[in-house]
Design goal:
The chain has 119 residues and is mainly α.
Length: 119
């Protein structure tokens, strides 16, 4: 099984660190990354809503089977913690890494443009 993590292309990252782009070219790269991140955020929201809906459905079925017992409340807490952790890791893998890589490369190589070019 391959786990895909959305990262900034190594060549682009290296070129940014070596100051090979003009401010206009960096703006175009930022625009493309913003568009990709917008699409990914939209998909992530859909996936998060789907996961939340399925979780509520499963916890509702558990409630009807067990009733309001300590086991049910423990399973709610454990499930909520796991879902939160999985969604956090998923967000970081599909959005957070590329954002961090681009911002770090721009801050390192182009400190004068860091504020206007940060994602």
């Amino acid at each position: 099984m391959n786990l895909y993590i959305f990262q900034l292309d190594r060549k682009i990252r290296q070129n940014i660190k070596n100051c090979r782009y003009t401010a206009e070219e960096l703006g175009k790269i930022k625009g493309k990354l913003e568009w990709q991140m917008k699409v990914r955020k939209k998909g992530f929201r859909r996936a998060a809503l789907l996961v939340a809906g399925i979780t509520v459905l499963l916890l509702g079925m558990t409630y009807t089977a067990l009733g309001p017992s300590n086991v049910f409340w423990f399973s709610c807490a454990a499930t909520a913690a796991m879902v939160f952790l999985v969604l956090l890791i998923s967000w970081f893998a599909c959005i957070g890494i590329v954002k961090h890589q681009f911002n770090h490369a721009v801050r390192t190589a182009y400190p004068e443009y860091a504020d206007e070019l940060s994602l």
